[in-house]
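Researcher: Structure for this, please.
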Amino acid sequence: MRLHRRHPWDLSPSQAIALQKEMAAEVDSTQPIDLDSVRLVAGVDVSVKDEQSQAAVVVVTYPGFLPVETVLARRPTPFPYIPGLLSFREGPVLEEAFEKLEAEPDVFLFDGMGIAHPRRIGIASHMGLWLQRPTIGCGKTLLCGRYKDLAEDKGSAAPLIDKGQTIGVALRTRSAKNPMFISPGHMADIPTAAELVLRCSPKYRLPEPIRLAHNAAGQFEP
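Model: Predicted structure, token format:
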């Protein structure tokens, strides 16, 4: 798959923050996804073991969720764990994985944040600028913002607000389970991002493409 490379990865934390502030202005979080035209969805995740990062991208049919392609990439973890700078830790190995893709997914779901990020450029937004495809951030834990109580039923949602701005939704993808925190990455808006994630979560809390990517990323072969 062709990527739009934007910058080198060997940056200090202060340089990374400065770059995020610069690139955030390019993120498009207002463009609805044409849900009726979606045929392939990719789940994206990275696991780390013994300072080795392994990325998995799993492409599935939509709405059937049948695996079409799985690609893996592994390399030494290049950047410390710093909240808000996940893309600089995972970006290099994701770049390698994306380059192996032969399929052309319509949408990418990331295990991580989109604009629900202090500088409005989580990993789904950042890598969305490299992919130039619709991307969605699916966070398991809250990074920033607040939301009001939401019902226990699957599909219940509450706006995620930070500094007076709506940056995503807290979405119950499974009844009586903790919500996911959904936000546009790039070339997506909040309503269609949340709707697609809900449709991609027929059984588990994690959307099925991300669940498959999570399982694949965690299998470290010798």
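Researcher: Any notable elements?
Model: Strands lie at 40-49, 52-61, 67-76, 107-110, 135-139, 157-162, 165-171, 180-186. The CA atoms of residues 90 and 171 lie 25 Å apart.
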